[in-house]
Hints:
- The protein has helices spanning 2-6, 22-46, 59-69, 81-97, 130-141, 164-173, 181-187, 190-193, 197-202, 210-228, 243-250, 301-319, 323-332, 340-353, and strands at 51-54, 74-77, 107-114, 117-125, 128-129, 176-177, 256-263, 276-284, 287-290.
- The protein is an alpha+beta fold.
- Strands 3, 4, 5 and 6 form a 4-stranded antiparallel β-sheet that branches. The chain has a 3-stranded antiparallel β-sheet with strand order 7-8-9. Strands 1-2 form a two-stranded parallel sheet.
- The chain is globular and about 55 Å long.
- The two termini are 18 Å apart.
Amino acid sequence: MESDVHTPEKYGIYQSVGDTTGPGGILSAMRAVPMYEEIAENIKKYCPDAWVISYTNPMTLLVKTLYRVFPKIKAFGCCHEVFGTQKLLIEALKKIKGLDAEKRNEIKVNPVGVNHFTWLTKATYKNIDLFPVYKEFALKYGETGYTENLDESWINNSFECSHKVKLDLFNRYGFIAAAGDRHLAEFCEGKWYLESPETVKKWGFGLTGVAWRKNDLKNRLKKSWDLQNGNECVKIECTGEEGVNQIRAILGLCDLVTNVNIPNFGQIPNLPIGAVVETNAVFTSDTVTPVFAGEIPKSIYPLVSRICGEQENLSTAIAERDLTAILREFENDPLVTCSKADAKKLFYEMVENTKEYLKSY
């Protein structure tokens, strides 16, 4: 991952996450897809009726792989990014209307798009349309960002943000971008929000460097060791993820509507059938049924369809282990702002750096 995230910086390409899209996301997919092919084959062979919840990035390409290898698989990709936007809508409701929503699931939303580049075309609280509320909120905090619910150290936390990117996208396009700013920025033109570290700082989010991840891994391994050896007590508490409720619903213990990543059966009519998309779905006994979400609105269609098309082409190219076709999608990516010659040089440099994990190519 150090190569995925930091090698492109030599060519003026900065990534705030580097595991979903952009150069890092493409190389990550090249490594992970062959593993997911093996996983899917074994599910097909040993437990074809099992439900599979995928949390791994790049989520779209990996869920696509599961269905490509085993079309009858019962799988979905699970992501909590929309939940954070529901929480921001609670803040907007409080600031603009003086109303308090107690829980994020009181904010009803209609998500459309692809993972980490999901948009809300509808948002309500009880009988209140939240789009006029969010419009006022975005105009009020668009220049400064909104950090009132964060402590003073938020800028040093690479996962926090000021929401300036999503507010700017709303002010541009009129729809609510429903992911963290770190992810949203990577799906946009590279010069918009990620031109340089100074640009990133101006937009109020962070570049999650791999040195930070390595240090965080040490801390998490220490915590695991302490839990295992009884030096720290296990706390039973909600994580903010939806997985437990999804499992309960599939077991028939409750019903649930939440956002998931599954192939497009027509829930988004103007994206390709079979492409993995993110919309709401109804969870009930042994069933996950996508909700008809409607078309991607015209104002954001060029942004979303470009990414969806790249992911579809990339899925095929990786499945065929076709480096020439993968390079073509690499060159087309919005973050790859260098020349075509430098893009080719960068791609093969990143491949060379990680060739130990790319032996099937």
